[in-house]
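Schema walkthrough. Field components (list of strings):
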Amino acid sequence: MAHAEAHAEHEQQQHPIKLYLLVWGLLFVLSFFSYMVDYFGLQGFLRWSLILIFMMLKAGLIVAVFMHMAWERLALIYAMLLPPLLVLVFVALMVSESNYVLLTRLAFFGSGP
Amino acid sequence: MSVPLKTHPAESLPRPAGLAGLAADWASDQRTFKNVSWGKAMMWIFLLSDTFIFGCFLLAYMTARMSTTVPWPNPSEVFALEIGGTHMPLILIAIMTFVLISSSGTMAMAVNYGYRRDRRKTAVLMLVTALFGATFVGMQAFEWSKLIEEGVRPWGNPWGAAQFGSTFFMITGFHGTHVTFGVIFLLIVARKVWRGDFDTERRGFFTSRKGRYEIVEITGLYWHFVDLVWVFIFAFFYLW
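Field assembly_structure (string):
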């Protein structure tokens, strides 16, 4: 009895197949585009920005539709999406640290053995 | 004078939406994730911890690549293949990406058919997903053996910065392990679905509890996460 009640309380994630097929197609197209970035050998800022844009779009589609995050309550969405953002703070720390390490290496080993 | 509200104890009150719902859910002094079962919530929390693991790997890779004075090997050339006489940069990785995305698509469909209680289609789609996953691992094994043959080691390689090998084996190795465990997980759940465990309410071997079709969605969450991690590895390690 308790089991049946618990069952009724969980909403099932039921969405039209057409939506999944659309996202599937979009993921293929986006992956193709990001491969083309490498194929045509784009360089510099254009390359990095395109890679990041395609990556974020793909990640967003997978999380929102395939993992059903778009239909969850905000309590779960924020609990899962905000903590990874803190990794960006770590990234900022390590960028500064690696610049320092590179500088030190160049200063001490730059002239070469 | 307020009228006392009469509610049926078995039915839950309507939950507020939006930010008010966020505050209410977290402040309710009860379980926070209201309409999500414990199984799904725990899979999400596990995936969050896994995000940090892969986040730290990619971070270590970034630090190594930014701080080395030796040029980084060009992944576009390292992972190029000669197919029919034409030189294709990064082609194997591109195919692996498409294989993994296809597996994600079949998995999403399996979840859909699972909730429709169509056990044959669910099981077949899960087996197809597992097949794509196994193909991916096979191609990764090919890639590893090719690089090892060319002299890539965790402590050095013929083309540049020594850290290339260690980060490559660490990151793709961990991801490949995740795919392998995902395939095993898929096969176990597909077998249960095929046997009709969730229709006959057969009890689990280890837990002695009745399973539900929701386990297909939970398996799906893990599998899509593996695909998600590959999106980041593809962008940062192979394309950057």
